[in-house]
Every structure is written in structure tokens, then in C-alpha cells.
């Protein structure tokens, strides 16, 4: 059985919706999604570091559409692990765990890896929205499109734009 590594933020959890929500609440600015294409999170939103260190930021993030259904099937077909950086933002550790338990209850605690660096992770396939995590990975890499990577050439990484495309790529019977 192949080992599949799936990122949380920007792949399962819609952190961009959270950034927009927090920015609107804080400053009244309501950026349209197209206005931030090609910008890193810290460039697109002024107070990203404050937002991600605010209680509730990760816990209240919306689920990216289609992810639950596809993840349930992937869990049957792969040795599946959620690997998410959580040490940089200490509040996120518990909130990410709670969020995953709430939205993906079919995953066991043994499938959740909340870490500092993903460089120590190994597997056959990695699905992530950041090049910094994919570039060092030795297996097959899949780039999940988010505004910060939308204009970038995916290079050796295969790009998917949504969970339907993830299913078509990783679940041939889909």
C-alpha cells in the first residue's frame, strides 16, 4: 500500500477564507481572491502572523470543498497521513488536532503528524500547497493550487486545482 502524505492548511483547511475574514473584521478591507494571486500570505494580508496566533483561527477554518469525501476514499486506498506544520504557531497544535477530529473523524490519531519541518517525512506521494515542502520530498509530488502558487510554474510537481482533480489523479475508479 502506498503512503500518501496530505497537508492540512491550504489543502484541507481553507486558511485563505480565514485571512480574508480576519482582515475584514480588523480593518474593513475585503480583498477579492483575484487581488492576491501570486502573493505569499504575508504579502497579501498585513497581519498574517497576528491572525495565525489568534485563538480560534485554525479551529474555525472552513473545510475545502470536496476534501472530506475524497479523503474518506483515499483513506481506504492508501496508508494516509496528515502532516501539518504546527510548531511555528504554538496555538495551532491543539486547534489543528481538534479541527481534524471534527471534520475528518475517520482518521485515527496515529495518522496525524503535527510537526515543525516536513523534511523528515517520507512516503510515496505528497500533496501540499507549498513548494518548500514539496521540493525536498523524494516521492511523487502534487501541488494543490492556492493564490500564492497560482502563477508559479509547478516544475516537477503535478498541479491540481481542487479535490475533484485529486480524486481523478489518485483514485482511478473515481
TrEMBL record:
Which domain of life does the UniProt lineage start with?
Bacteria
A GO biological process of this protein is: pyrimidine deoxyribonucleotide catabolic process
What are the positions of the active site? 7, 9
Gene3D superfamilies attached here?
A: Deoxyribonucleotidase, domain 2 (1.10.40.40), HAD superfamily/HAD-like (3.40.50.1000)
Alphabetically, the GO molecular function entries are: 5'-nucleotidase activity
Tell me which family the UniProt entry assigns to this protein: Belongs to the 5'(3')-deoxyribonucleotidase family.
What is the name attached to this protein's record? 5'(3')-deoxyribonucleotidase
Which species is the source of this protein? Answer: Niabella ginsenosidivorans
Amino acid at each position: 500500500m502506498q503512503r500518501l502524505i496530505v497537508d492540512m492548511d491550504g489543502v484541507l483547511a481553507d486558511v485563505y477564507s480565514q485571512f480574508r475574514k480576519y482582515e475584514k473584521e480588523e480593518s474593513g478591507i475585503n480583498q477579492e481572491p483575484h487581488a492576491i494571486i501570486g502573493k505569499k500570505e504575508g504579502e497579501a494580508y498585513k497581519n498574517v502572523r497576528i491572525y495565525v496566533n489568534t485563538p480560534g483561527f485554525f479551529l474555525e477554518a472552513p473545510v475545502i470543498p470536496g476534501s472530506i469525501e475524497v479523503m474518506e476514499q483515499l483513506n481506504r486506498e492508501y496508508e494516509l497521513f496528515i502532516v501539518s506544520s504546527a510548531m511555528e504557531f504554538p496555538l495551532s497544535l491543539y486547534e489543528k488536532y481538534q479541527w481534524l477530529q471534527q471534520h475528518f473523524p475517520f482518521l485515527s490519531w496515529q495518522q496525524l503528524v503535527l510537526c515543525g519541518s516536513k523534511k523528515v517525512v517520507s512516503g510515496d506521494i505528497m500533496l501540499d500547497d507549498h513548494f518548500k515542502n514539496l521540493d525536498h520530498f523524494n516521492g511523487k509530488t502534487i501541488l494543490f493550487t492556492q493564490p500564492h502558487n497560482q502563477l508559479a510554474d509547478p516544475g516537477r510537481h503535478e498541479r491540481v486545482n481542487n479535490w475533484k482533480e485529486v480524486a481523478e489523479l489518485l483514485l482511478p475508479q473515481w
